[in-house]
Design brief:
By secondary structure, the chain is α+β, with helices and mostly antiparallel strands. The protein has a domain of 114 residues: Trna Endonuclease, Chain: A, domain 1 (3-Layer(aba) Sandwich). 21% of the residues lie in helices and 40% in strands. The chain has 8 helices and 17 strands. Strands 6, 7, 8, 9, 10, 11, 14, 15 and 16 form a 9-stranded mixed β-sheet that branches. It has an 8-stranded mixed β-sheet with strand order 1-2-3-4-5-12-13-17, with helices on both faces. Helix 2 packs parallel to helix 3. The longest helix is centred in the first third of the chain and has 16 residues. The two termini are 31 Å apart. 27% of the residues are buried. The C terminus is likely disordered.
């Protein structure tokens, strides 16, 4: 059975477990750990430690970047390393190519968990069954009403966005726009917003460079929508992490690849033109500076 250079695979596995641990409190992950046993120290690729009910629970993970499915020898190898190490609570093997039937049966009998971890390919059934729609929403134009407070006559520079809390208004309101759209995901073509007493006022920039305060302000933004549709396998670094015994699957993506959706997914001007409707939908608010706030995908992120 041939084995590839396992360091890269260990690095990928560590990223995945770091992402999983980030969702839990008090989980510590270390690499290449030597643990004392009755027969001397033994080294494990990745070790997870968590405190449960006042007791430390230790899980050891062995990464096997094999060119074929792992067999019984891989299971026996981990079982032998764990034997005589009373501090270890659980053993896990992670491979790219999966496990033979006899290996799975042996692992189940010994209480060893088995996982496969690999990139989703274009042939992956799972990837093709996870279409993603990103609805991009940007301010088309804005209307402002309120009372100006000024001690001198001034001309407003309408080419410059008003400022709110030190930011351009479209950027400052991105989170507020997102909340409104989530509560009214369809049919919303404009967003109306007013600052609370604790928020502070809006400021317009005058031609002479001074700032004019707008009190009792109401902001109405008319929205432009565009749609981007694609599949997770079109993101090159999407990883599939599957429990070989239960069949459960988790996906992991690099956020920078999803944020590049406009170059990776197909664009549609009308939602009705999108070829299917059974997809995960995300929302994205785009400001004039090109920055945006997006909802987290229901798969986990690495990197």
């Amino acid at each position: 059975m041939s084995v590839n250079n396992g360091k890269e695979f260990e690095n990928i596995a560590e990223c995945v477990y770091q992402a999983i641990a980030a969702l839990e409190n008090g989980v510590r992950i270390t690499r290449n750990v030597r643990i004392s046993s009755l027969d001397g120290p033994r080294e494990f690729d990745i070790v997870l430690e968590a405190v449960v009910g006042g007791e430390t629970v230790t899980t050891v993970i062995e990464c096997r970047d094999l060119s074929v499915r792992a067999n019984v020898a891989q299971i026996d190898g981990l079982a032998s390393k764990i034997d005589g190490v009373p501090s270890i609570s659980k053993g896990v093997i992670v491979t790219r190519k999966g496990f033979s039937k006899t290996a799975l049966a042996k692992a189940k009998r010994l209480g060893i968990s088995t996982y496969t971890l690999d990139s989703i390919s274009k042939e992956s059934t799972l990837g093709k069954e996870f279409p993603v729609l990103i609805e991009e929403i940007s301010p088309l134009d804005a209307r402002y009403s309120g009372r100006f407070t000024s001690t001198h006559a001034a001309t407003i520079d309408l080419r410059v966005e008003p400022q709110f809390n030190g930011k351009p208004i479209s950027e400052a309101l991105a989170d507020s726009m997102m909340a409104i759209l989530l509560n009214n995901p369809s049919g919303v073509e404009s967003v109306q917003w007013s600052p609370s007493k604790d928020d502070g006022p809006l400021f317009f920039k005058a031609v002479d460079g001074s700032l004019l305060q707008l009190d009792d302000s109401i902001v109405e933004l008319n929205l432009k929508r565009q749609y981007y549709y694609g599949y997770l396998h079109e993101l090159p670094s999407t990883l599939e992490y599957a429990n070989s015994q239960t069949g459960s699957v988790q996906l992991f993506i690099k956020p920078e690849e999803l944020l590049d959706y406009s170059n990776r997914f197909a664009r549609y001007n009308m939602r009705s033109d999108i070829p299917r409707t059974d997809m995960k939908q995300l929302y994205c608010i785009v400001t004039r500076e090109g920055r945006f706030t997006s909802l987290p995908l229901s798969v986990r992120r690495i990197g």
